[in-house]
């Protein structure tokens, strides 16, 4: 009943009728409770019968009670069920009627309660056209309720129940039922029992009450119906909706009593009517946007065509300049399914109300705002997503491009000039409601990059004196974001990356980046749009000769020249909005989008903009190539080549110069940077070396010229003559490493890069920390498969690479032309499937020597694939790095079986940051103990290895078959017991271990003593020992000092960082290195407590 009451709108009934409906619902609750109580408490024990023997009393009472119920309830229909259906059905009729006519009543009464005369006249005109639908609906619900009331009265009195339930009842039962059966007497006689029902009077009373209420209902409604019909016959205009509302239903406006409450209710109703009207307009005007219309197919609605874009949260912060090239530098940081919202509603929550959305041009920022606004207008969509605790009462959509002026305006005026605002006036009641309830306000600001603003003025904006302050938009916007106006309102802002510097000082709760469509979405769309006849054209080779071309008509050419000048001047002056005088004669061109007129003092001015900024940039390039002389063009390009806003213009320019033979290509090619730099690092080694020798390479471009080089490469790729000249210059530079680390390269950029830098001398290519993705990897693979390419070292760290990219790389390194020796794929999204692709490749005469798969998603299954590969005699892999994956002891066993095979050539295996445990350590120990194993370096740090695992490894390196030189067990669970096992092992003459790292374990002084005893032995070949973070005190330092003081000790490096060594331990060590027997070259005591005294001891020692 409470739900029914919620759907009863007081404004759809008159005062008396609404009270009557309320009492009806009250009676229904009362009757329901009474009859349910009677049903639950009544039993056959309230029914008494005489004449039965004591042992048969219950039998008699039960059978007589059943006969009584059959007589007074013919159809066995429970009375409480009858009462429920009676009252609920009639109440539902009232609720259904109220909801049906609610919007009609709102429309008719809106003009009377709103000061907007324009809307009042519109509503009155609408009312005159709607006729008497409200009167008919009202009379219809009265008629239905009369019919239902009469039906329930007839059912109660004539069919289901008697008018009176008798308390006395004569019950006839056969003797065989009430007496024991006598086998000698088969005669059965009927017996009369006089029964009494104690609840008969109570039932009779309450059934009469139900009958009375139904009778009053029918009588009351009948009186009202006769009144309405008689008045309608006398006064025909009474049936008109507006007249009927005013004369019969309007009494309900003052139902709630005091004037203060009336005012509050009126304010709330006015606000709700405003919101309903706004939602109606939004829902209608956003259904079929102009951008979605198709000239050759059925137009699709926004709901049909919209798809969730790939959006990531907390994008990496970049120091964007005003250069337009920066907007193309921020690309996907994560395609992880868990890091992207599933829909646009995920952008907002209770705690994050100030949200910034960044995206490249045309990526879908505006459409995202429109979809979010449309979801709000559809009520349940957005509310259901955000939850009951977070609800928007009002939403406003503001496009920055509408306010490209310094005119002052108030917040109220700003809201009135928002998109889809229903009127030219905001009622004071609505405005007051917004001020009192800012937490329910959603404001969408779209296109900050399209707004001409003064950053200095914005950053120095004062605190508002009142909410009516009139200020430029940039100040109002800052007040809204910082909470100085409408403190708890939700603010969503969209912008291109190039404009981030203008709002960098504002603190947003969340920032998002729209990346566009996922790879799967692109594939699905391509499959849908693929022509069935595409196979016929796939093998065809089309050249420019296959196309017909001709000069443009003079009229068109004249217009295009004007367009080029307008586009060029707009970019040069930073103007995106063009006045009507600029495009005079071209207003109907499909190249322009018509904006709302700009309001001026005397006359509104027409406004236009290009349908997309790239279109403006193309015509600007056309203007440059057609109107500037060679000298002017050369000076202009050289002056602005580093200015980001001209980046795409110059790309278009390079392409247009292809056919302009009178313009020398040197205008662009002479700008190609020629400076190189030498870098020396072990990372650049192509072959595994035990001592990690430094490799020196000559890199191009240098760090300060990478941005320029990328810009020019994009330009050069647009012109075949320029590309050839650039390759000639690159060959003369004598460099062997192309270094494009952190250049924000994308898949498209990779295509340009591969086409331009395809020169023979390049052996190293560093593309780490970009965002090339699988498609960019596909382009790079073209370089690997090129016959002339000498590329032997490739770094693709942190590039959003997936299994698809791994597949492309596997095909490339399997190619006969590929000379790649080192492949770095750290920090990507390669899973077991990608690992299988790579395993199949290195299993097939591949020349790859080093493969780094650190920080991917490889599990035991992927480890098995790789193990099967290195187990093959075709595999030449020497170094395999699987750090920070999901490999357990099972994967470790697969790898152990592989390195145990004589075909395996692996020298270095890194399994750090996995979970191989003691079981996995045992498998690996068994493997390196085999004479077939060629492993020299094993890294098992961060793997939950305890003393048991340490014992297994110690037993292995103690064997003369083991060739292991370096063992890293950092950050495991090894104590002094495991240290003793390892110390005993390196004390053996068979052990070839040179480096042992036990950082971050729990070795303690006891373990330090064990190692001291070991390195004190002439059999020990250990050169480097790392015992950092191991709770070693002065006692342990003393033991180690005594060991390195011995002439048998060969230790060159000892690391005791972050232990508990004081100046006393430092003194022991100082005395040891002061001895001529000590061969120590490096001693690290950082993060201890040796104090100045210990430092003094060490100083005396190294001074000796």
How does this model look, in words?
Strands 13-14-15-16-17-18-19-20-21-22-23-24-25-26-27 form a 15-stranded mixed sheet, with no helix packed on it. Strands 4-9-5-8-7-6 form a 6-stranded mixed sheet, with helices on one face. Helix 4 (79-113) runs antiparallel to helix 6, helix 12 packs across helix 13 and helix 36 (1004-1015) runs parallel beside helix 37. It is 45% helix and 11% strand. The chain has 1104 residues and is of the alpha/beta class. The protein has 39 helices and 27 strands. The model is unreliable at 111-130, 177-188, 252-262, 315-323 and 329-339 (pLDDT under 50). The longest helix is centred in the first third of the chain and has 35 residues, at 79-113.
Poorly predicted sequence stretches spanning 5 or more consecutive residues: 111-130, 177-188, 252-262, 315-323, 329-339
Helix share, percent: 40-55%
Largest sheet: 15 strands, mixed
Mean pLDDT across all amino acids: 80
**Percent range for β-strand residues:** 5-15%
Structural class: alpha/beta
Question: What is the straight-line distance between the termini?
Answer: 98 Å
Instruction: Count helical runs.
Output: 39
Q: Whole-number radius of gyration?
A: 44 Å
| Total E-strand runs | 27
Shape: extended
Strand order of the largest sheet: 13-14-15-16-17-18-19-20-21-22-23-24-25-26-27
């Amino acid at each position: 009943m409470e739900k029914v009451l919620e759907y009863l709108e007081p404004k759809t009934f008159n005062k008396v009728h609404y009270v009557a409906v309320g009492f009806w619902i009250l009676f229904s609750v009362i009757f329901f409770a009474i009859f349910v109580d009677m049903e639950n408490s009544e039993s056959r024990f309230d029914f008494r019968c005489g004449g039965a023997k004591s042992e048969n009393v219950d039998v008699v009472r039960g059978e007589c009670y059943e006969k009584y119920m059959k007589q007074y309830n013919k159809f066995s229909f429970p009375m409480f069920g009858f009462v429920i259906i009676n009252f609920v059905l009639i109440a539902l009729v009232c609720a259904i009627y109220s909801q049906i006519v609610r919007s009609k009543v709102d429309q008719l009464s809106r003009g009377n309660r709103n000061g907007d005369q324009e809307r009042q006249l519109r509503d009155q005109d609408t009312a005159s056209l709607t006729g008497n639908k409200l009167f008919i609906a009202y009379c219809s619900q009265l008629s239905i309720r009369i019919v239902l009331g009469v039906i329930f009265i007839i059912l109660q009195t004539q069919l289901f129940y008697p008018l009176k339930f008798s308390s006395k009842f004569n019950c006839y039962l056969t003797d065989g039922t009430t007496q024991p059966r006598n086998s000698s007497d088969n005669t059965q006689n009927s017996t009369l029992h006089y029964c009494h029902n104690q609840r008969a009077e109570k039932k009779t009373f309450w059934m009469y009450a139900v009958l009375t209420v139904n009778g009053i209902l029918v009588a009351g409604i009948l009186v009202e119906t006769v009144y309405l019909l008689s008045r309608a016959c006398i006064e025909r205009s009474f049936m008109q909706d507006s007249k009927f509302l005013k004369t019969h239903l309007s009494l309900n406006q003052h139902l709630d009593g005091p004037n203060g409450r009336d005012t509050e209710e009126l304010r709330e109703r006015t606000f709700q009517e405003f919101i309903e009207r706004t939602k109606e307009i939004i829902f209608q005007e956003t259904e079929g946007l102009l951008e979605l219309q198709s000239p050759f197919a059925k137009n699709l609605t926004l709901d049909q065509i919209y798809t969730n874009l790939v959006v990531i949260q907390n994008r990496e912060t970049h120091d964007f300049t005003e250069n337009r090239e920066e907007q193309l530098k921020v690309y996907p940081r994560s395609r992880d399914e868990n890091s992207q919202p599933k829909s646009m509603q995920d952008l907002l929550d209770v705690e994050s109300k100030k949200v910034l959305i960044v995206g490249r041009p045309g990526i879908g920022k505006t459409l995202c705002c429109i979809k979010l606004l449309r979801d709000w207008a559809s009520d349940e969509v957005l509310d259901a997503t955000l939850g009951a605790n977070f609800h928007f009462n009002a939403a406003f959509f503001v496009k920055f491009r509408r306010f490209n002026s310094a005119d002052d305006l108030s917040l109220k005026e700003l809201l009135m000039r928002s998109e889809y605002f229903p009127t030219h006036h905001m009622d004071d009641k609505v405005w007051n409601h917004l001020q009192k309830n800012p937490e329910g306000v959603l404001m969408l600001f779209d296109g900050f990059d399209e707004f001409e603003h003064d950053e200095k003025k914005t950053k120095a904006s004062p605190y508002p004196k009142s909410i009516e302050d009139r200020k430029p938009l940039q100040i109002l916007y800052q007040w809204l974001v910082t909470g100085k106006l409408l403190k708890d309102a939700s603010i969503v802002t969209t912008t291109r990356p190039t404009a981030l510097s203008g709002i960098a000082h504002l603190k947003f709760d969340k920032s998002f980046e729209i990346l566009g469509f996922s790879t799967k979405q692109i594939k699905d769309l391509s499959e849908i749009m693929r022509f069935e006849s595409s196979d016929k054209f796939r093998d065809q080779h089309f050249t420019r000769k296959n196309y017909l071309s001709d000069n443009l008509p003079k009229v068109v050419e004249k217009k295009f020249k004007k367009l080029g000048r307008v586009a060029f001047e707009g970019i040069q002056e930073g103007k995106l909005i063009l006045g009507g005088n600029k495009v005079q004669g071209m207003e109907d061109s499909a190249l322009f989008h018509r904006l709302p007129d700009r309001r001026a003092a005397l006359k509104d001015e027409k406004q236009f903009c290009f349908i997309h900024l790239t279109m403006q940039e193309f015509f600007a390039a056309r203007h440059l190539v057609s109107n500037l002389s060679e000298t002017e063009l050369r000076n202009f390009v050289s002056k602005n080549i580093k200015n980001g806003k001209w980046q795409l213009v110059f790309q278009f320019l390079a392409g247009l110069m292809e056919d302009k033979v009178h313009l020398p290509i040197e205008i662009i090619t002479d700008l190609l940077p020629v400076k190189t730099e030498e870098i020396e690092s072990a990372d650049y080694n192509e072959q595994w070396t035990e001592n990690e020798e430094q490799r020196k390479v000559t890199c191009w471009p240098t760090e300060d010229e990478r941005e320029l080089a990328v810009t020019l490469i994009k330009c050069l790729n647009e012109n075949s003559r320029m590309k050839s000249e650039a390759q000639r210059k690159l060959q003369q530079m004598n460099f062997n490493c192309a270094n494009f680390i952190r250049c924000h390269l994308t898949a498209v950029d990779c295509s340009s890069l591969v086409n331009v830098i395809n020169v023979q001398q390049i052996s190293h290519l560093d593309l780490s920390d970009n965002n090339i993705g699988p498609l960019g990897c596909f382009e790079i693979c073209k370089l690997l498969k090129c016959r002339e390419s000498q590329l032997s070292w490739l770094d693709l760290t942190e590039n959003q690479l997936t299994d698809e990219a791994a597949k492309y790389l596997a095909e490339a390194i399997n190619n006969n032309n590929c000379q790649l020796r080192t492949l770095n794929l750290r920090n990507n999204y390669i899973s077991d499937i990608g690992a299988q692709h790579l395993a199949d490749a290195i299993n097939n005469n591949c020349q790859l020597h080093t493969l780094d798969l650190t920080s991917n998603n490889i599990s035991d299954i992927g480890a098995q694939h790789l193990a099967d590969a290195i187990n093959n005699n075709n595999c030449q892999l020497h170094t395999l790095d699987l750090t920070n994956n999901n490999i357990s002891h099972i994967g470790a066993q697969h790898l152990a079986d592989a390195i145990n095979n004589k075909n395996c050539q692996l020298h270095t295996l890194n399994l750090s940051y996995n979970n191989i445990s003691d079981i996995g350590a045992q498998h690996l120990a068994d493997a390196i103990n085999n004479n077939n194993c060629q492993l020299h370096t094993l890294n098992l740090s961060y793997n939950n290895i305890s003393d048991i695992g340490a014992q297994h490894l110690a037993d292995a390196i103690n064997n003369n078959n083991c060739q292991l030189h370096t063992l890293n067990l950092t950050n495991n669970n090894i104590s002094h017991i495991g240290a003793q096992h390892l110390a005993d092992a390196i004390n053996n003459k068979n052990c070839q271990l040179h480096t042992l790292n036990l950082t971050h374990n729990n070795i303690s002084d006891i373990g330090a003593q064990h190692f001291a005893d070991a390195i004190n032995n002439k059999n020990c070949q250990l050169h480097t020992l790392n015992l950092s973070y191991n709770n070693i005190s002065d006692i342990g330092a003393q033991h180690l000092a005594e060991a390195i003081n011995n002439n048998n000790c060969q230790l060159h490096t000892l690391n005791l960082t972050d232990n508990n060594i004081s100046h006393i331990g430092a003194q022991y060590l100082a005395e040891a290195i002061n001895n001529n027997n000590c061969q120590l070259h490096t001693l690290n005591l950082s993060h201890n407590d040796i104090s100045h005294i210990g430092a003094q001891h060490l100083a005396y020692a190294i001074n000796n």
